TrEMBL record:
GO terms for molecular function: hydrolase activity. It comes from Hymenobacter elongatus. The lineage of its organism: Bacteria, Pseudomonadati, Bacteroidota, Cytophagia, Cytophagales. Residues 35-359 form the Beta-lactamase-related domain. Residues 1-20 form the signal peptide. This is Class A beta-lactamase-related serine hydrolase. Keywords: Hydrolase, Signal.
């Protein structure tokens, strides 16, 4: 019994969210930014980093910091490829939007009708079928990858129906599709299969021909198998005072995370969004309306209730509190952490990847702060009194939906969130954190606007993100 209690306590401690990073200093020049990034890299044991900083009509920086290969002492350059993990999903979603523009399928198509061979187990199929949009927004209710389904140690790569068969167990709806968002890489394997079926090409061939080459991305590749070499960064983990190189193993869920790209590639990908879906020579790869579809969360209950924040088709908000919201995606794969973001209205964007394998949020904070240094803080919105009667039915305890059933017991022990009213605030009390106001005070630039709807708050809303 004592051992069980100790294990439970360890789970609680390990699951406590990291404290917020200290304030970001004012950075007025690229040289200051690079110095600050190098300082964080040294502190977080990150050997190298690729980086691009973009404006609508220019490139502020495109290159690298530190080393791509410690043994060879090879520096990161603008053409050093990093594994960018789940940023791959943004390419798959854009590819499917191209097919949707061509009328080959629709976001609301029922997957069972257009691809009955995908082995989805949905107990609610008659009333709540899995739709294409559910795959792209992680709202089908699928489990995430089981541990033995992450890296492929076999000499062959299962493709098409064989790849889907690997994840038959994960492709089961654990709740009604469209109720809630729970990140599931196998859902993007199914999305990649749809890309292949309706284009008539393997997903890696389609992405190369219809996105990478038209955008003049010189180094990017969605290949599952890559080898260490002059143009490829090694990934590392830092343990016991030493760096250990991570093998570049292929993954099973290629459409969810197989892409490798350089800073020069990511410059083009960021500008694709800043240029409303056009190539450098002006050719439209996506229409502006399709970009807005990518930037919109459609399917979960929160989106249908009018909450603006959420995960669209491989696209979500990246906060810079008090100034502006970027959009984009992040990615993590053994040895690499990647992020890209853009702000179409302001005409700025960025992408970076580090080969230390650790999440260092200060890197992204520094990059965003540099790009927004001349932007004034948002004008606070007027404060709106809380409608206690409208909020009352939603107060109470919310249990987290497990991203991965393997760790569901830990989520159960953490107890989820308790939503309660205190004056003009909804407070979300987490077991391991201080209360978070869902509706910030009037001095906040994210104070609840007078929308005419009850200011209902999501129990998972983060501080500063509004109602």
């Amino acid at each position: 019994m004592k051992n069980v209690l100790l294990a439970a306590l360890l789970l609680l401690v390990l699951a406590v969210p990291a404290r917020a990073q200290p304030g970001v200093p004012a950075i007025r020049s690229l040289a200051q930014l690079q110095d600050s990034l190098r300082h964080v890299m040294a502190r977080e044991h990150i050997p190298g980093m690729m980086l691009t900083l973009v404006r609508h009509d220019s490139v502020l920086f495109e290159g690298g910091l530190g080393l791509a290969d410690l043994a060879a002492q090879r520096p990161v350059t603008a053409h050093t490829c990093f594994r960018i993990g789940s940023v791959t999903k943004t390419f798959v979603a854009a590819g499917l939007m191209q097919l949707i523009e061509q009328g080959k399928l629709r976001l609301n198509d029922e997957v069972r009708k257009i691809a009955p061979e995908i082995p989805i187990d949905n107990p609610w199929e008659a009333t709540d079928p899995v739709r294409v949009v559910h795959l792209l927004e992680h709202t089908a209710g699928f489990d995430d990858m089981r541990l033995n389904h992450i890296y492929n140690a076999t000499p062959t790569d299962p493709c098409g129906a064989a790849g889907l068969a690997v994840f038959r167990g994960e492709l089961r709806c654990r709740w009604r599709p469209g109720e809630r968002m729970s990140y599931s890489n196998p859902g993007y394997l199914a999305a990649g299969y749809l890309l292949e079926k309706f284009s008539g090409q393997p997903y890696e061939h389609y992405l190369t021909a219809h996105l990478l080459r038209p955008l003049a991305m010189p180094d990017a590749t969605p290949a599952l198998r890559i080898s260490p070499g002059v143009g490829v960064s090694r990934g590392y983990k830092y343990t016991n005072g030493h760096y250990q190189a991570v093998p570049l193993l292929p993954i099973y869920v290629g459409p969810a995370g197989s892409m490798s790209a350089s800073a020069a590639d990511m410059t083009q990908w960021v500008q694709f969004f800043l240029h409303d879906g056009r190539t450098p020579n002006g050719t439209a790869l996506l229409q502006p309306a399709s970009l807005r579809e990518l930037e919109t969360a459609h399917s979960p209950l929160s989106a249908r209730a009018g909450l603006p924040a959420g995960y669209g088709p491989a696209n979500y908000s990246l906060g810079q509190k008090g100034k502006a919201l970027f959009r984009g995606h992040s990615g993590g794969i053994d040895g690499f952490i990647t992020a890209f973001g853009y702000h179409r209205e302001l005409g700025v964007g960025y992408a970076f990847s580090n080969n230390g394998g650790g999440r260092a949020p200060k890197l992204e904070q520094l990059v965003q702060a540099f790009l927004l240094q001349r932007l004034p803080a948002l004008v606070p919105a007027p404060r709106v009194p809380l409608d206690a009667a409208a909020v009352a039915p939603y107060l109470g305890h919310y249990r987290n939906a497990a991203r991965n059933e393997l760790f569901g017991f830990a989520d159960y022990l953490l107890g989820g969130v308790n939503l309660r009213q205190q004056g003009d605030f909804c407070l979300a009390n987490r077991l391991s954190a201080r209360p978070i106001p869902c509706c910030p005070p009037a001095r906040s630039p994210f104070a609840c606007p007078p929308t005419g709807r009850p200011p209902l708050c999501s129990p998972k809303t983060k501080a500063g993100s509004g109602c």
